[in-house]
Amino acid sequence: MYDFGLVGLGVMGRNFILNVADNGFTAYGYDLDKEKVNSLKDEGGDLEKVDASTNIKTFVKSLKQPRKIMLLVPAGKIVDSVIESLLPYIDKGDIIIDGGNSFFTDTDRRESELQNRAINFFGAGVSGGAKGARRGPSIMPGGSKSAYEHIKPIFEAVAAKYEGEPCVAYLGPKSAGNYVKMVHNGIEYGLMQLTSEIYDILKKGGDYTNDELHSTFAKWNSGRLQSFLVEITSEIFEQKDDLTDGRLVDQILDKAKQKGTGKWTSQNAMDLGIPVPSIDVAVSMRELSALKDERVKADALYGRPKVAHMDKEKLAELSEKALYFSFIITYAQGLHQLADASKEYGYKLDISVIAKIWRAGCIIRAGLLADITEAFKADASLPNLLLSPNFVNKVEETVGAARELVAFGAINGIPLPGLSNSLIYFDAYTSSRLPLNLIQAQRDYFGSHTYERLDKEGIFHTEWDE
User: Fold this and answer.
1) Which of 59, 231, 352, 436 could form a disulfide with 30 if both were Cys (CB 3.0 to 4.6 A apart)?
2) What is the value of pTM for the model shown?
3) What pLDDT does residue 466 have?
């Protein structure tokens, strides 16, 4: 009998189950595709450690009770279909774990339905891509706390390690795990957009070559911007193109695709009333990038400013500071959303624990997360990272560079929406007085929507003179 079962033996599933087998647990896989089953058997080598089948009954009956069955299949109807196919063979007390990017309300529904059958259901976000699944991902599980004890030894063994600590933790009830993974992906959208903007301004405003871009990002990765995304960005600029004499990055079409998790983050933040403009605009830019044909036509219709060139060293210094500033702001927005969602949905999230398990394995891992972890350890009720005394100096010493780069981009026609929105968010969040009093006056004028006053308690309405 095997310790762990996994449905879906694509690249992610195969790598994850092999990771389980490498860490002292026996694992059994299931897939309808016979080639994928055979591929796992061949790569696993020892069938006593890892085996697989195309027969779902054989798969289920090969697992120790309570069965721990993880699904790594596309989100949506396929998850429901797989669960339905498992139900005739599993028993009360068994555990089903959805490791895909399912929308959190779907997870709540599935948990409720399976709870009626006395079956435990977990939504567990898994970040790190195919390589992370094999070498150690960051895992974000949510569901029954008592049932998690059965999963915990396996997840802690396979998860990435940061200074010896596994990058996995029980996050909360219901869909807490899927929700945290959703916001993780929203932050990921923001950080990727910001990184691409810095690349653009270095290339257009400083005539940086790919070799110079490689060395610049590599240097940043050895400092306070140390992160997975900065690291791989430096490596991308070195990659040669197999079809031309140039570098691959220059031949890739500028249309970025998406799978929806960034959009979900943005939409849900609006439902909660939490501003996440750096994430919002990252989603919008992917949508705008898809309008390639229209952009080409528009480019031919309108004149563009001639780009002035800045001293390379100065531009690099400003860019490093601006990217660090905007990374902080993007994390602040995402974590603010998590804190509010925790209250709204009853997750009881510990933000310091979330930041801690993001320090290794996941796509948004960064040295900055160690500082974020300490900030929320010092004040668990911190509503926003910008209110942490530990971050005031970090922001104040870098915000000036962000201002200078945003101005440079605006004058020279270089779009920097992520950086601009990060700056706007910061300026608005740190303003004790905003002009929204005028908006309230307008709303009361045309719609009698009322307003509050600075000098008196209560709700007021004025019969405006027309």
Assistant:
1) 59
2) 0.95
3) 66
Mean pLDDT of successive 10-residue segments in the chain (466 residues)?
94 93 94 92 84 95 96 93 96 94 94 94 91 92 94 96 95 96 96 98 97 98 97 97 94 86 93 97 95 95 92 97 98 97 96 96 94 96 95 98 98 97 98 96 95 96 88
Here the CATH number for the domain that contains residue 418 is 1.10.1040.10
Same domain, 47 and 186: no
- Say what the pLDDT of residue 286 is: 94
Query: Which residue range forms the structural domain that includes residue 143?
Result: 4-174
Which residues are part of the catalytic machinery?
181, 188
Question: Does 233 lie in the same domain as 145?
Answer: no
